Amino acid sequence: MYETVLRAAPMTADLSHWLDGRTLVRLWPDLVLAPQVRSRWETRFPELTTGPGRGSRRAQ
Fold it and tell me: What pLDDT shows up at residue 6?
């Protein structure tokens, strides 16, 4: 579900309704996202790549 919401949510309100920050950080390395989508999110939310136990690990 997270992959679909990240790709298709038309409004910011949809993101906050469907996504939980802690869960997103935990799932982030395993989500299958287009490189440009992943890059935009990681630029805006650096904690996605440096979450607990991640260091600078990136899934790709």
Answer: 87
